[in-house]
Amino acid sequence: MKTINMRRSIRKYSSREVGDPLLKTLLRDSERTQTMGNLQLYSVVITRDAGKKAELAPAHFHQPMVGEAPVVLTFCADFRRTSLWAENRKATPGYGNILSFLNAATDTLLYCQTFCNLAEEEGLGLCFLGTTVYMPKEIIRVLRLPKLVFPVATITLGWPDELPELSDRLPLEAIVHEETYEDYTPDRIDRFYQPKEALPENKHFVEINRKETLAQVFTDIRYTRKDNEAMSEGLLEALRQQGFL
Ligand SMILES: Cc1cc2nc3c(=O)[nH]c(=O)nc-3n(C[C@H](O)[C@H](O)[C@H](O)COP(=O)(O)O)c2cc1C
Hints:
The protein has 245 residues and is α+β, with helices and mostly antiparallel strands. It is 47% helix and 12% strand. Flavin mononucleotide (FMN) binds at residues 8-9, 11, 63, 127-131, 167.
């Protein structure tokens, strides 16, 4: 079976080190990914030091992988290097705006995902931490990110010490639209989401959270409007601070 069909997030790692030569090879090979204007609008900060991981942990809601993984990688949208290059070459950069942030964030996520694919091909295990954009100001402080550099993704990386069950996915027809967008009728929603709702682990999830539906677990507990709005404020402040707004 192809590696991609067996991939799952890995949150427990063995004590085996991830050697620097392997890490650098993977980071170098990932540079082959597509990038806007061939500018490579990203940087990555490698964290191996236990003290630094402990400093990063609060920004990731103390998820244990941050302290336990041998390597934590923070992938940053970076228009700084390109801007400094321009300024040093009699060119005037104009990248302190939201479009430039989106372009740099796109480059960064593509680079990050290429790294993930290559790392998993090597047998490494990893977990993507979306918390990176929840409290970016903390990460910016700890990693000393200057203006026009913004953390968009974190990966905890190590050799797997677990083999979790594969998680479910929606059927292809739920995500693919032929020629134009076909909106979702209640019938189609039922068809696409009922298998997920029927999974024992999801039923259990609903039960222990004392909710009526699985969707309520997401809207009322895991990703609430209140949290999303509060963290959006923090995100906007951080974008202003870093010069993208
Ligand atoms: C944007 C994004 C944010 C995520 N954030 C977290 C996180 O903060 N903590 C975590 O344990 N997993 C996180 N994950 C991993 C997902 O939980 C995981 O990919 C999903 O449940 C599917 O499981 P699988 O990767 O094992 O197939 C994140 C994944 C993505 C793409």
